[in-house]
Write a structure and sequence with these properties.
Number of helices: 1
Number of domains: 1
CATH class: Mainly Beta
Structural class: mainly beta
Radius of gyration: 20 Å
Largest sheet: 5 strands, mixed
Keywords: Carbohydrate metabolism, Glycosidase, Hydrolase, Polysaccharide degradation, Secreted, Signal, Xylan degradation
CATH topology: Tachylectin-2, Chain A
EC number: 3.2.1.55
Bound molecules: 2-acetamido-2-deoxy-beta-D-glucopyranose
Order of helices and strands: HEEEEEEEEEEEEEEEEEEEEEEE
GO molecular function: alpha-L-arabinofuranosidase activity
Family: Belongs to the glycosyl hydrolase 62 family.
Catalytic activity: Hydrolysis of terminal non-reducing alpha-L-arabinofuranoside residues in alpha-L-arabinosides
Strand content: 25-35%
CATH architecture: 5 Propeller
Shape: globular
CATH superfamily: Glycosyl hydrolase domain, family 43
Length: 410
């Protein structure tokens, strides 16, 4: 069946002299919550699991995320797993050097894995490794971005990066209704984007809040941006598309009542929020490609809670797109099509992967016991992120005066 379909594709592609097969992203996505329950619970007595970044890795899923331990942020990776149903028992490997709100990818031009994050020594920092499965095998922190964000009350937040053939781009949010962008020649990466950025989208704070992610749409010359917003019911994502990464991002889906992904179009019952996460990519590299023909999203959701924002019981969840546009041949389209199909697709829950060479590294254990305790002696700045609701103003708490790894213990 699969072979037959591939053969048909090859024949039709040859017939019209093009190579790409693609699906348009519907302007009104409909998702299923698959399963309609958290994928995993925190280990090590942690309060929550958050801010997921995911790559396909040698046929398995590799996930990093933030953790909160009694109000204080840290980070973890998960042991490799093949099936989402195995995430519940995958190891959770706390990191000695926290990488909060991480972005994980393979930088193919230099054959190196990169993990970008916030609240390190710079506004955004990165570390590199030859073995991304080793949570504690990352190199020293390097500056990724050292500037501010013009209107952001707490500074730059929630970076992502992505490349085209020429440039590497940084996108980030500010909890301030703006999305920011900076770029550098791809040959200069890994490196710092410097201290200047451009505001590329503005709206109210609630309507462009945080957790921005940018992806290449497979088979098209078109990029997708999703941004987490604060709704009346819960957190949800808006979407925008652009014909190039340096271009204008124009709205695709709408606000809370017609979102890219939110309570209203996911049929989710276990969470009011579809919050900070990652679309499941079809490659692990700097192109951040996703395939709208079979789209899934790993996100953070939560049960109702009266806890402070930092202690909300976030857990990983998965949603699967139910109405991808029909398969088309040709690619290269940069129009913002809103076509949708009534055909429901079944999407495999096993990771699709572009295998890369896994370097051997035996000098670090990849798992920590729950009795592991910090032996760090330097002074840590503990920054508890202020809570946000649609009715909270953002003037009551001072922005952090600097950055540093949060103190953590487990
Ligand atoms: C949790 O944090 C609170 C507030 O900082 C502190 O009073 C309490 O001792 C902490 N509990 C544990 C078990 O660390
Ligand atoms: C687990 O965390 C809770 C909340 O911080 C704390 O009260 C409790 O003492 C912790 N338990 C252990 C075994 O550390
Ligand atoms: C993944 O797990 C689900 C639920 O246990 C199961 O139905 C499915 O067959 C599994 N998929 C694979 C590829 O193993
Ligand atoms: C920004 O970076 C430039 C060098 O790229 C430097 O000259 C300038 O002082 C920096 N500005 C700030 C405010 O750090
Ligand atoms: C925010 O975006 C919505 C949806 O595009 C638009 O209707 C509204 O005018 C925008 N508001 C502001 C303040 O830019
Ligand atoms: C992007 O949008 C701005 C404002 O609407 C417009 O001035 C500019 O020409 C647009 N740029 C491109 C490349 O479309
Ligand atoms: C959260 O509380 C609201 C209001 O009581 C309720 O409608 C909703 O079903 C609850 N959500 C969950 C996930 O329990």
């Amino acid at each position: 069946m699969l072979f037959q379909r591939s053969l048909n594709l090859a024949l039709s592609a040859a017939a019209v002299g093009v190579t790409a097969q693609y699906c348009d992203l519907p302007a009104s996505p409909q998702w299923a919550s698959t399963p309609d329950a958290p994928l995993a619970q925190p280990m090590h007595n942690w309060t929550s699991l958050k801010d997921f970044t995911h790559v396909p890795y040698e046929g398995e899923h590799l996930v990093y995320g933030s953790i909160v331990n009694n109000g204080t942020y840290g980070s973890t990776n998960f042991g490799l797993f093949k099936n989402w149903s195995d995430m519940a028992t995958a190891s959770q490997n706390g990191m000695d050097n926290p990488t909060v709100a991480p972005t994980l990818f393979y930088f193919a031009p230099k054959s190196i894995w990169v993990l970008c994050y916030q609240w390190g020594p710079s506004a955004f920092s990165y570390r590199t490794s030859n073995d991304p499965t080793n949570a504690n095998g990352w190199g020293a922190a390097q500056p990724l971005y050292t500037g501010g964000a013009a209107g952001a009350p707490y500074g730059p937040i929630d970076q992502t990066v992505i490349a085209d053939d020429v440039n590497m781009y940084l996108f980030f949010a500010g909890d301030d209704g703006s999305i920011y962008r900076q770029s550098m020649p791809i040959g200069n990466f890994p490196g710092s984007f410097g201290n200047v950025s451009q505001t590329i989208l503005t709206n109210t704070t609630e309507n462009l809040f945080e957790a921005v992610q940018v992806y290449k749409l497979k088979g098209q010359t078109k990029w997708l941006m999703i941004v987490e917003c604060e709704g009346a019911v819960g957190r949800y994502f808006r979407s925008f598309t652009a014909a190039n990464l340096n271009g204008n991002f124009t709205e695709l889906s709408g606000l809370e009542s017609a979102p890219f992904a939110g309570k209203t179009n996911t049929k989710i019952t276990w969470s009011e929020d579809i919050s900070h996460g990652d679309l499941i990519r079809s490659t692990n590299d700097q192109t951040f490609e996703v395939d709208p023909c079979s789209l899934q999203m790993l996100f953070q959701g939560r049960a109702n809670s009266t806890a402070d924002y930092n202690d909300l019981p976030y857990r990983p969840g998965l949603i699967t797109l139910q109405n991808p546009g029909p398969v088309q041949y040709g690619g290269g389209s940069s129009s913002s099509s809103s076509s949708s199909s009534t055909t429901l697709k079944t999407v495999t829950s096993t990771a699709t992967s572009t295998p890369t060479t896994k370097a051997t590294s035996t000098s670090h254990s990849t798992s920590h016991s729950s009795t592991h305790s910090s032996t760090h002696t330097e002074t840590h700045r503990t920054w508890h992120r202020p809570s946000h609701t649609t009715t909270t103003t953002h003037t009551s708490e001072a922005a952090p005066t600097g950055y540093g790894p949060p103190h953590y213990t487990w």
